[in-house]
Design goal:
Its main location: cytoplasm. This is Elongation factor Ts. Associates with the EF-Tu.GDP complex and induces the exchange of GDP to GTP. It remains bound to the aminoacyl-tRNA.EF-Tu.GTP complex up to the GTP hydrolysis stage on the ribosome. GO terms for molecular function: translation elongation factor activity. It is found in: Cytoplasm. This protein is of the alpha+beta class. About 50% of the residues lie in helices and about 20% in strands. The protein is built from 11 helices and 10 strands. The strands form 4 sheets. It has a 3-stranded antiparallel beta sheet. It has a 3-stranded antiparallel beta sheet with strand order 6-7-10, covered by helices on one side. Strands 3-4 form a two-stranded antiparallel sheet. Strand 3 and strand 4 form a beta hairpin. It is elongated.
Amino acid sequence: MSTVQISASDVNKLRQQTGAGMMDCKKALTETNGDFEAAIDFLRKKGAKVAASRQDRESNEGVVIARTSEDFKTGVIIELNCETDFVAKNAEFVAFANEIANVAVENKPASIEALYDLTIDVDTERVKIGEAIINKTGKIGEKIGVSKYEVIEGDKVVAYIHGNFRLGVLVGLSKAVEGADEAGKDVAMQIAAMNPVAIDKDGVDSSVIEREMEIAKDVIRAEGKPEAMVEKIAAGKLNKFYKDSTLLNQEFVKDSSKTVSQFLDTVDKGLTVTAFKRVALGA
């Protein structure tokens, strides 16, 4: 046991440096005879142990952050998860997620693993995001981590966050024209509400088309329609699927007399969506 006297100011200093709890800081300094560097290492090791012990826990709460670069040419979405709604609503946790998103949009890593290798400012030093997450796990006492990461690029990228950080959308537009910010937000809200599967029918995966056709044919046959009519009726149902499920062909939620494509045309002739991403918490 340490014989070094640990003062309240020492505990507070370590707490300010690491963000760890008061009792954890006091224990760390006691165990390391008041050596600040050793105490910081002690707390980091504790964080790693906590992280390892919670690997089998469910972490379905958290926040979704959508962010664009300063030139609005790049956008990212990250989902940072935790175990409880209490932590998800904590301002420090949300700020940590925003810091990760800022680093992501600046560097455009290719994967979550590459994101974890990037560095972030934590207190007075620069550490890898993966290490910062382990340290944060030790401090919070819950399993946390990035479960989703998306990035898009375009002539104009607009980000939208819905429902208290529970859903994020990125929209890439073909032109950075006057009115693009507002139009992009309107389209992002459309995506949040209607959850399209693709920009238009050319972007729908062939396996989705095959599944929709087979379902349609089974329904038509069950209705007793002649076999000669099945293919034609199924094609009509597929067109209805495109109208309901592809972004540019959907009815615009703010004006049902127009499709999304037609709405964008009113903003600027030929304006269209080149990419989008939608991430919902826990989905």
